[in-house]
Specification:
Helix content: 25-40%
Radius of gyration: 46 Å
Mean pLDDT: 76
Number of strands: 54
Low-confidence stretches: 1-14, 25-78, 212-366, 482-495, 630-649, 1078-1221, 1409-1423, 1456-1461
Number of helices: 50
Oligomer: single chain
Distance between the termini: 117 Å
Structural class: alpha/beta
Amino acid sequence: MGNSYAGQLQSARFEEVLHSSIEASLRSSSLVPRPIFSQLYLEAEQQLSSLEGGSRVDNEEEEEEGEGGLDTNGPPNPYQLAPPPEGCCTMDGFCQAGKDLRLMSVCNEPLEVPAGFLLVGVKSPSLPDQLLVCAVDKRFLPDDSGHNALLGFSGNCVGCGRTGFCYFTEFSSHINLKLSTQPKKQKHLKCYLVRDAQGALTQGPAICWKGAEFRNRQASASANSGPVLPLLEGSGPLAAFSGEPGAPGLNLGIQMSAQQAGPTLASDQPPMAAAPGSRVFNGRDSPKHQQLAQSSLVMLARPSALGILSNSGPPKKRHKGWSPESPWAGDAGYVQGIVSRAKYEGAGVAQAGTVGPASVAFPVMGSGEPVSVPDNLLKICKAKPVIFKGHGNFPYLCGNLSDVVVSPLLHTCYQNSQSISRAYEQCGSSAVQPISEEMQLLLTVYYLVQLAADQVPLMEELEQIFLRSWRQSHLAEVRQCPQAPPQPYPAVPGPAAPVTSAQLPWLAGLAASSCNHSVHVIECASSLAEGLAEMFRLLVEGKLAKTNYVVIIHACRNAAIDSCIAVTGKYQARILSESLLSPSEYQRKVHCELATGRLDSLGAFFSALCPEGDIDVLLDKFHQETQGHISSSVTSPSVTNAVGLEVGGIPTCATDRQEPRGVRPSQLAVAQKLLSHVCSVADSSTRNLDLGSFGKVDFLVCVPPSEVTFQQTVAHVWRSGVLQELGLEQEPATRQRVERHVLKMDAEAPATFTAFLQRSRRSPHTLFVLVHDHAHWDLVSAVRNLYSQSDPCVGLVDRLLNCREVKEAPNIVTLHVTSFPYALQTQHTLISPYNEIHWPVPSGDGAGLYPESKKYFGLSEFIESTLSGHSLPLLRYDSSFEGMVTALGKRFPHLHSAVIRTLVLVQHYAAALMAARGLPQMKNHTSVETLEITRNLLSAPKQCPCGHGLMVLLRVPCSPLAAVAYERLAHVRARLALEEDFEIILGDPTAGITVGKHFVKRLKSWQKIEDAEWRPQTYLELEGLPCILIFSGMDPHGESLPRSLRYCDLRLISASCLARSALEQELGLAAYFVSSEDPAEQAARSEASGSGDGEKPSGSDNEDEEEAGPEAASLEAASPSEPGSPARREWSCSHDSASSSLSSRGSGSVLCSEASAQHSGPVQGELTRASPPCGSMEEARVPVEKPRSDGAPRAGQQSLQVPSSSSSPGASCTGTLVLQAPQCSLAKACRQPPIIFLPKLVYDMVTATDSSGLPKAASLLPSPSVMWTSSFRPLLNKTMTSTEQSLYYRQWTVPRPSHMDYGNRAEGCVDGFHPRRLLLSGPPQIGKTGAYLQFLSNLSRMLLRLTEVDVYDEEEINTGLWEEPEWHYTQLNDPWPDLELFRKIPFDYIIHDPKYEDASLICSHHQGVKSEDRGTQRTAEPPVRRRTARIRLSKYAAHNTYHHCGQCQHYLGSQPRYQLCESTLHAFAFSYSMLGEEIQLHFIIPKSKEHHFVFSQPGGQLESMRLPLVTDTSQECIKSPTFTPTTGRHEHGLFNLYHAMDGASHLHVLVVKEYEMAIYKKYWPNHIMLVLPSIFNSAGVGAAHFLIKELSYHNLELERSRQEELGIQPQDIWPFIVIADDSCVMWNVVDVDCSGEHGREFSWSERNVSLKHVLQHIEAAPNITHYALLGLHKWGGRARACEVREPFSRCHVHDFVLLNVDLTQNVQYNRNRFTCDDVDFNLRVHSAGLLVCRFNRFRVMKKQMAVGGRRAFHITSKVSDSSAAVVPAQYICAPDSKHTFLAAPAQLLLEKFLQHHSHRIFPLSLKNHGHPVLSVDCYLNLGPQVSVCYVSSRPHSVNISCSDLTFSGLLLYLCDSFVGPGFLKQFHFLKGATLCVICQDRNSLRQTVVRLELEDEWQFRLRDEFQTANAREDRPLFLLTGRHI
């Protein structure tokens, strides 16, 4: 266009530019006026310093008359103010007369304002927070639109009253502004001043200076240290008009049904919906258009002098020499190039609101006179003109309608831009006006003018142009709208006078006058039909041969304009018209062309091009000449080797080694994330998934209807062994059984799916996982699909996976798995954003999941290879092929481009094969790229002893064309006698793989397969086979390709129907892994081919063997490092495959994924371009530098050329020749990624980036089945994570009516999310299948784990250390103990519970220590970990809060009728003399449990807890109330006793601390809770036991009193309570068979029983009220005969006890104790003469818990900054010392100190079990190496005989008055024995020593007094030690 000005949209309004350009054209001597577009939009950028100085020339200001020209090339001079007059006032805020002008000072003063003047606020730079008041003539102030202000100034000083200031410079001096720059009224006159309601002068609205806000933003940006306008970088479509080639764009076309045709085509479109467009992409070959940005700073230049003139008057006098071609005024500094950003969207299959085939040629309904389409228009024009309806009415078309295409897309775009302002009208901006129709059309003309010849118009670019123009016009309203989208653009001046209808045709023609006839404007006088007829006439006459676009305008002064735009350029029209076809129409058109024989003319043309004659004739001639000696001269070494395999030795190859299979860390991490999300669904309050009710996992994997994908998935499942892990198969399953779990979505799928649903209904306790693999395929709605009758497979996913049975089944979880999740991330999606799982990226939190030697090679790495610093790029396009296709398209306009491209490419392959077989003249009929492919294909097997070769993927989307290509290439191969050299495989998705028998033999020998019937069923099994895979199908269906893939030929993919998902899945075919090698190793292996470092995974499974993989395949990740990186290279010819190997730079990758902020910097170094080879490129090699060990990018890279031995004449290539022995081509292919060939349009689209580094293809419409919600959406950001992208698409896309999620919001659900649906997304070929199969295994193991529990499995301790007692309970078959017999059994003082392994031994006179064990029986250190066993939960188990089932919902209160608010709080107080005060407890009683209590009437005060009678025999209730003290286990405590009680009625009370009341109430709303007083918040379990017992006894007394009034005797009230730990999970009973011949011979078995059975059995015991304490045996998996022989024992009981609160009235728990309180209480009960009985046949299992309980107490220092650990030796200290105090209860410190350091107090007791420590009235744990002897001081106590014992120490703990001097003198102590007296305070300590006369036998020292390490306010305990005299 002759426009060389690079930059961005200029800030001035284009109407002014137009008028200025017209005037400039009249004055200029040049005949060619400067293009207006370049003035309006392509302004140059200014240097940063010019924005900071503040002294630049402002072109919005008028120039002073007579000032002369300004030197715009020199730096601006600082402004010099005239010195103020002597003696005047110079104080800021005052005028020179000394009068105060500050608003705050004069706001209440009356000011005289002359008529025609207004009070204005002046901004002074020296008073930033003040405004100065002045009066200004309103004629010199602008109106509300920023216009009509007279030039100059007229004002008065309100302070001194001076008038007549005619220059603002003079006035600024008078009011002491003290400016350093030239005074400008626009800069300093800020706002109007108005009077408020009180009459005070206050700040009013701002003065609307044109461009003022623009300058303010510039000034604020220049003040920052960062980029001048950071908003411009990476946000907003700034250059929708950009002509750069890397800005490919989508076309203006769209599919349109017949119902939408005509003038009302777009009337049903939603106004805010972005018009979907077909995908066509622009591109240029010019190198200047490939330049990237030179700097990441985006700076704005000053507006051009052409664009500042107001329409209110004539322009001022210009500088001399001014012309439109002169440099811009005020443009100081250099111009920085920027890469502007364009926005691209894909097009849908159909318009919103319509489903069906596109209407390409149809009768267009219109209005007015009809227009006849000429005959033979297509033949004349060589392309179908595409007419876009614009404004107004469109006329009727008649005649040859098949030769034109009409689209309403432009009309829809105009409507959308008209409705842009509606978003702001909601904010209250009623004055906002939409952009005018004249402006829309004029902007459209300018857009078309700047398009290059090889670019196609993009509707989204035009839409962004309209949006920006509207923003400029209504900037103030946009800023006032709080809900407006963020502003990605700089501030611009206000609007000027609008373009009128009369001006429009002339301005449009003027704009088109400089584009070299590419745009032609036709003005119609009467109607639009006249212009259309004129256009058809010009087309027929050939006068529009050079015109690409025709703009037809019918503009009337008093009526709305009519317009339309016709695309007549052959290139543009062909692409646009073909893009309007739907996929089905595209297939039908191609099939019709093949069926009608239209290809014959193209074949004849090919024959005419070959001077040597027809290719078929040459093939026949070659076949005849070579027939007869093929076996001796043609057969390749690979064939010979293959034949030799049948005879004997098997050749070996390095690639025969298979990589070990296994689940990689990244797959394990994803599987764990999936499991976590499933658990989150189960843990949610909605309880939509009850994992506790499932005991098994089953699954079904749904795959697209591709036989290869089906077999591939079957192989995955079969090799993974998941069926065995899930228990679905008992032994290795056959493939036939595996196929039952994989569903191919074809016509037979509904029957299989119905069977799956029936299985799920029959197995409610099995969790079924429905895996929807390749989930982006077939999202068509089954309800709204028009083709459901004709094609039953369409919409099958919706019919099956979204059916009501799947949605409502509580045991089905649906997992969608895809690499392209965008179509499932809309506003109507069924998948919650919280249920999305994204593959971890190596640069983010998944850095540790990937080995350094492996790197996923995806789209971003392919794009990176096109940047500088690399060897030959891996992404290429074939310019010679593209040129031939373009030429043939003009010659054969009736043929579809896909047909032409396919036949041309097949012709190239045929000619290349012929050239490789000895016909060198055929080189001229193929391209260098195709020749390279065929030569390497044929030569690769010769370099391997096994005959391994390469795979060439030839992607032919259209199935009929794929069949044509297959037949043609097979024919050529047969005539060239190459059947044994390589295979040609037709990859049809609906069929399997067909491979020749001799090739099958090779594959079997390579893979060591002995099955005679084996045939390859997947592409992965073709590894090493030299072949051309013709891959058909409109979309890939998830097929994985082997690591021998070397070339991915995508030259035939459609460039006009690509959305982001479609593009990524095409390029994802080549994605796999590369491995970084040691440079020395690589150098030793690299040969002339320059092997890369890529390595594909094992050939067995491409997807399941990769090693790493971020979100690298996402398009926004594929970008150069920075906008300032060097230019991307254009390759017009290709090089050898091996020479284009990967340049993996480790951390220098441009991989942009979830953590793109962590990317390494741009590649350093200049681009080194290799000279294009002149001849064969097979021997040309470019060695590639390997990554260094530190992963740093290298500074540069050199390219070496190797002279070719077979180069054509004239070839001159110099370089270094690298000679090395041949190497297996498969081994080389495994170390380098494949090379991808793309169409030119797609290549430009993929490699183009905007100024922020974001690939422009990332802004495509994510999927054809969705559409944008609004034009106001922000653009994707380069640094967005996968989660942020998902939220972006969820906000800005909606499904089309044909999408299966379209009606989701209407289903009645508030948010529309399905609770049991998950989405797993990750790059292609990353290992997603292996991840979700591992997830199934993990899920199955977790469900089994949920049904299992870890219980303590320990043997009883201290069983063999003591001499056996003489008395046993002899009645082995007694169900209950006989009272008289039981009284005779001596009490076993020894602790046998294994949890007290580290506790002190208790001595008694009944049990003596065996002599051989004396002193050596105990170990000093307890075991590190207690032994556990995993036990399956029975139906009688107790459960925690994670258990949910239908049976116990009412018990837990999870049903709606049980609400948290339906609990009442009741106080219960009783007196206890030992505490000296009244105890007040609180009960939280749910409504459903109030029947267990007695309340006063009236008043409802809690009186007592109901107790049953001893004589009650009901089998449906439990008589004993159960109390469970707990702390820190609100989630994990086993409080759900419904199943344990077998549904029996029972009373269960949770005993909690006050500070934990709320959290326990939240988790257990239907449980009764006893809340301890706050003083016990830091107490131990002893306090809970103490209060439980005392409360129960007090309640017993109350119940006796209450029921005595009813005639019931007090002794008949049930006196027992149950005190149970919160970890008791199950109960067993031991059944003993004593039928042996000898008296004490027996056998036993163990079974699980309910807690109901246990309690009812014990409660039914005769004389039970005579027992004080009853307990159960602890379960152990290795029970011995001695443990089960005796049914009852008189010993310690723990964990689960029945306490007789009546008998134990005078025996209390020690409320201060933290540990061993149950042992202490057992000893107290026995010493009181009461019976303690343990039922040995009942066993309780205790669950291992890692939280809560005793672990809730932490001993820390009170010094906050102390980081040192506190050891037990620091728990006591000397009184009054400077010891660090600890934040812990004193009793806990004492107990822990004695447990670990009692040997310091009792040195003689260490390992001296014959001389224990005498402990009076208490049991304290002194550690395992010290024994104690417990005695009670109470009268009539049962104590052991101590007459024969000599004690090594005496422990007196808080002794009371029962301990006296006489009591102590009956015991004997060793000389030197130690005494330890413990009291509450030092005074009590001294009183105790005196009262007990201890000084008579014990020696004390002052230094032997200690205290616990507590502060005084924490009430420490005091210790006094002494030695026995």
